[in-house]
Amino acid sequence: MSTEYERIYLNQSKLPGRMRLAESGLGWKAQTLPGSTAKTSPFLLPTEEIVTTSWSRGSRGYEVCIDTKNRGVVMLDGFDKEDFASLKKELEKFFDIQLEQREHSLRGWNWGKTQLARNELVFNVSNKPAFEIPYSQIANTNMTGKNEVSVEMDLVDRAKIEKAGDELVELKLFIPGNMEKDEVEEINKKEEEEQNKTDNAFTTTSDKIVPLRTKALYFYDELKEKADLGQVVGEMIVSFGEVLFLTPRGRYDIDMYDSFLRLRGKMYDYKVQYKQIQRIFSLPKVDGLHQLLILQVDPPLRQGQTKYSFLTLQFDSQEEIEVELNLEDDEYEKKWKSRLNKTYSNYTYMVLTSIFKGFTDRRVVVPGSFLTKDSDVAISCSVKANEGHLYPLDKCLIFVTKPTILLPFSDVHEIVFSRVDTAVTHKTFDMEVILKYGGGSHTFGNIDRKEQSALETFLKTRNLRVRNDEKIAQEMMAAALADDDEDGDLDLGSADEESPDEDFKPGDENQDDEDIAEEYQSDVSASDGDGGEDDEDMEEGEPERKKHKN
User: Fold this and answer.
1) Strands (DSSP E) along 458-534, which ranges?
2) Cβ neighbours of 401 (radius 10 Å)
């Protein structure tokens, strides 16, 4: 005998389904859309997994939250108010569990108290829960300040059921204050008891120097433990210590497990699923001393408001390493033999590249046939004020290191060269890559003019549309000059010919000459005399000229 409820949403699913209660447990299956032939797998929750249940208001009516032993929190939304009595009765009948009513706070305050429950983070306002976040939906947490803790939502391990609407990406909690000495001593005592230390090795906390610890740091550590962010399922297969990352900047330890890897740094820890890694690039630097390993990840890693879609690792090209994978022979033969070696002994970047390729099952992209004038695989250029190198690969262009820009040839509409001529004043040129479908453009400037010919030829071999603005301008200028030569016999007038002036009046000519003569009337012979006599004559003649003029 079982009881069914229609139009119930499981874990905020987009489609409703049918929920069934029976002695063996709880089941749910999404409804089939009209005309759809796709089959959906039902969700089953055994009786022994159910711990507690609660009833509260939800987004689609009323909601039942089920706290489980090993599956986190299961949310069933879409019940009517009248379903409470029957549902409570059925839960007592089948599972011997009470359905508790939970009233949420509707004050809208953003300050309250945090509670780390069994399977979820609860934010309480006036002793009532304002919201809950299941630990299964938390991907990472970091200390972004002395008293600030960021909580990042999991966007990778999505349920097979399609989510509807907007999703929470990140939450920041400001937790002021420091831990009291008594609180720290109590915490240390609990840690010592858990470690099962012997009486001889045991020392009381009163004999220790208790370090100052903020409440935010304590919350951060507790959340990591509760959400199992630092805990992993299974044994660590291989680890690499103090690997230099150019983006995000810093040194991280890389711990690689069966389905994911962990990046452990001084300030930030990340958990990256192998299925997040979309592309792998292994590129030598122009200096000939270092090798770059670039991982494109989606969704990107986050540090506050900064997103990192590319993880750039740098290695000494001559550094060597020997590693052995921590895999049982049976497991290795069954699952990893075709993709990984049991032991590696080679350059560090080659070992890590091979292991990444094996875990992710992705092809490693390496430089193609393009070579510069100096036989390098990359061109020195700049993006705005950032200098870097552009790698023309067989199927894409990639600029490193900051910002890292990837431009697949399939997304390129046109490539435009500008400032390209043979003049001595133009030793560099610019290249603009225009993307399809209104994707904008990227300009790479200050490229050596000597690289233009080889780069243009390479891009044309990839069936890309290339336009040289300078060449087009020169052709237009040559065509214009040719047209001028053809029109050389056209009567354009002569400089010796006089053209009448509209403002010119013949009657004014005599008047102007007369005024000039009166203005400069003097004894010409005086100019041939002594300088003193010349001055005297000019002084004597001055009043006469003014009188005559009047």
Assistant:
1) 466-468
2) 17
Domains, the chain: 3-101 (2.30.29.30), 238-365 (2.30.29.150), 379-481 (2.30.29.30)
Task: Let me know: does 37 contact 52? Beta carbons within 8 Å.
Answer: no
99 close to 56: Cβ distance less than 8 angstroms? no
Distances (CA, A) of 417 to 239, 321, 386, 432: 46, 44, 20, 7
How far apart CA 45 and CA 61 sit, in angstroms, is: 22
Q: Which two tokens stand for residue 78?
A: 């879409």
Nearest to 452 by CA among 424, 485, 429: 429
The pLDDT score that the predictor gives to residue 38 is 59
How far are the Cα atoms of 377, 435, 437 from residue 466, in angstroms, in the given order? 20, 13, 18
pLDDT of residue 13: 82
Q: pLDDT tens digits, residue range 448-502?
A: 989 989 999 999 999 999 988 766 666 566 666 666 555 555 454 544 445 455 5
- Per DSSP, the three-state class of 454 is helix
Give the count of beta carbons closer than 10 Å to the beta carbon of residue 38. Answer: 7
Q: Give the whole-number percent of the chain exceeding pLDDT 70.
A: 73
Give the Cα separation of 191 and 437 in Å (integer).
58
Q: State in Å, rounded, how far the first CA of the chain is from the last one.
A: 132
pLDDT (tens digit per residue) in 118-127 = 888 999 998 8
The Cα-based distances of 351 to 288, 310, 477, 485 in angstroms read: 19, 20, 57, 68
Helix (H, G, I), strand (E, B) or coil at 465: coil
Burial class (CB in 10 A: 0-12, 13-18, 19+), 391: buried
Q: What is the mean pLDDT of residues 423-427?
A: 62
Instruction: Annotate 388-446 with DSSP letters as a single string.
Output: EEEEE-SSEEEEESSS-EEEEGGGEEEEEEES--S-TT--EEEEEEEESTT--EEEEEE
Q: Is the distance from CB of 112 to CB of 133 less than 8 angstroms?
A: no
Displacement of CA 202 from its chain's centroid (Å) = 49
**Residue among 1, 9, 153 nearest 75 (CA):** 9
User: Which of 22-36 are b and which e, b meaning 16 or more Cβ less than 10 Å from the residue's Cβ?
Assistant: eeebbbbebeeeeee
Nearest residue to 260 via CA among 303, 229, 291, 223: 229
pLDDT score recorded for residue 155: 67
Amino acid, single-letter form, for residue 153 = M
Contact 458, 421 (CB under 8 A): no
Inter-axis angle of helices 508-519 and 531-549, nearest 10: 140
